[in-house]
Design a protein that fits this description.
The chain has one domain (23-204). The chain has helices at residues 4-19, 23-35, 37-59, 63-68, 70-92, 96-101, 109-121, 124-133, 145-178, 182-204. The protein is globular. The protein contains ten helices and no strands.
């Protein structure tokens, strides 16, 4: 069992890390602004589902493969970078009128959810981050390490939901204004596309 001190300290650290600018919260913000609050929240759920995969990998030691294998690390980052470039292409080719028609995101919720999962799972930095971060808060004297890792991963996900949920709501409020301004929509399209390209380049050039 984790101590109260460990839980509170880890939760605070997780919230601060989720607040730090990075691919995931930028992804939530841009998708929420382009497609509405609900879409941003669905993307957030997809990202957090991806975190479940990373938590399981750390808990059962699979993430060690990505830390030790240059081939596995390179393959995963190339897939992730390619997906980000695909998202950039999708955003850049979308007209402002098409964004307006997507004011109700119900038809694309499943797609947005899958986007969140794929983006998170294909980011090798998340696996390595979990592998480096979670064990710092585990204590062999307090029970099975795998169970402690799973518990810490759950706490991290709760903190992420709270932070990213707030980001999605802020982005959605911004999107309400964007739907009334076609020039602003064009600007956000290009900004979002540029962000995705930048994230893809950053991921593709990441070192272990």
């Amino acid at each position: 069992m984790l101590s109260i001190e460990t839980v509170s300290t880890f939760f605070l650290a997780s919230a601060l890390l989720a607040l730090a600018p990075g691919p995931d919260n930028v992804f939530v913000l841009t998708q929420s602004a382009l497609h509405g609050k609900l879409s941003g929240l669905i993307v957030m759920l997809g990202l957090c589902t991806g975190l479940l995969v990373h938590t399981s990998a750390v808990a059962f030691g699979v993430a060690v493969i990505f830390q030790a294998s240059a081939v596995a690390f390179t393959l995963l980052k190339v897939v992730g970078a390619g997906y980000l470039l695909y998202l950039a292409w999708q955003v850049l080719r979308t007209s402002p009128e098409h964004i307006r028609l997507q004011g109700s995101p119900r038809k694309s919720l499943g797609k947005l959810y899958r986007r969140g999962i794929i983006m998170n799972v294909t980011n090798p930095k998340v696996s390595i981050f979990f592998l480096a971060f979670l064990p710092q808060f585990a204590d062999p004297e307090r029970g099975a390490i795998s169970l402690q890792m799973a518990s810490l991963g759950g706490i991290f996900i709760v903190a992420t939901v709270l932070v990213f949920g707030t980001v999605a709501l802020i982005g959605g409020a911004l999107g309400d204004w964007l739907n009334k301004s076609m020039p602003a929509q064009r600007i956000v399209n290009w900004v979002a596309g540029t962000v995705f390209v930048g994230l893809a380049l950053k991921l593709a050039t990441a070192q272990k």
